[in-house]
Structure formats: C-alpha cells, structure tokens
Amino acid sequence: xxxxxxxxxxxxxxxxxxxxxxxxxxxxxxxxxxxxxxxxxxxxxxxxxxxxxxxxxxxxxxxxxxxxxxxxxxxxxxxxxxxxxxxxxxxxxxxxxxxxxxxxxxxxxxxxxxxxxxxxxxxxxxxxxxxxxxxxxxxxxxxxxxxxxxxxxxxxxxxxxxxxxxxxxxxxxxxxxxxxxxxxxxxxxxxxxxxxxxxxxxxxxxxxxxxxxxxxxxxxxxxxxxxxxxxxxxxx
Length: 236
Prior knowledge:
The protein is α/β, with parallel strands linked by helices. 77% of the residues lie in helices and 8% in strands. It contains seven helices and four strands. Helix 2 crosses helix 3 and helix 5 runs parallel beside helix 6. The chain is rod-shaped and about 170 Å long.
C-alpha cells in the first residue's frame, strides 16, 4: 500500500466517524419529528388499507362505514341523554328545595297562627274574667255552715272573685244576717245542730219568696232531701 492509498483510507474513516456523529445528533434532535413521522406513516397505512378494502370489498367497506356512523350517532345520543338526565336531576333537586322551603314557610305560618290564636284566647279569657269580676263586684253571699273550715274556704274563694262573703255558724245567726244584709245568694248547709238547713230555708222563703238559696250537704240525708223536694213542689 503506497502513501496515497493510506491517506485515502484515513480520510474515508474520518468522514465515516463524522457522519455517524451527525446522524446521532440529528436522531436526538429530531426525536419528536420521528414520532410525528410514525403517526403519519400509521395514518397512511390505515388509509391505504381503507382504500384497498373500498376497491376490493366495497360491501365490507360500506358495512364498516355504517357501523361507524351508528357508533357516532349512538355516542351523540348518549351525550344528549346524559345532558337531559343532568338537567332533569337539577330540576328535581330544585323542585325538592322549593317544596322544603314552602313546607318550612307553611310550618312557620301555622306556628304564628297558633301563637296569635293563643294570644287571642288569653286576651278573651282575661276579658271574660274581668267581666265576671265586674259583674260579681258588690254581690253579697251568705255562707251558712256549722263547720268553720268549710266557711273559711268558701269565703276565701268567693272573695277572690269579687264577691262580698258573709258567714253564719248556725241557723238563728243566718236569719239575723239575712234580714240585715239581704244577700244575693245563700249557701246553706242542710245538716246543722239546732235549726237545720230546711228550717232556715222555710223561714227565709217566708220573708223573701224569691231568695236564691243553694243547699249543700256532706251526708246522705235522703229523708231531708225528699222533704225538701216535696216542700219545693208545694211552692210551685
């Protein structure tokens, strides 16, 4: 090998190394371009396959096209249905919220009406009590009973309602107080020592036939009650 051939080989080796380095750098630099190229190649292959099917098997081609169209239509209808369902759920949720709001409002209104009705009832009750007290004010009542506890209890209760109570522990004292005070009502015990309630009743009725007398008793005085009925029937 002469000197010229040796120099030529060195030169060729150097050119090969430079070309290898250049290819390596270009490959690293154009990696994304290679991926895009691969996608284009795949698309071209698919297109070529579709054209081949169209040219050699048109029935299969149009069948595939029809299936794709049905798939697209089905997908679109599915999306539309999803939107309709979503809107329906939103409207249903809104309707439920409105119903709950209306129910709460009605409950509040009912509660307010009950409170107003209760206040009106209390006012009416107070008004009636005042009217009764005003009507009873100044009315005199005579309580005739031989038991002191009953007299005190009745006097306290009648006094609370604006009446003027008087008391007598026996029939003789009751007649004296009646002639002096002229009470509007007499509460008269049927069974008392000495002059009993029926005798007192007869004496009062002699002087005041329209006297208002209420007979009371803690005992089962059937005979006295029967006599009272007979006597009262004779007055009618």
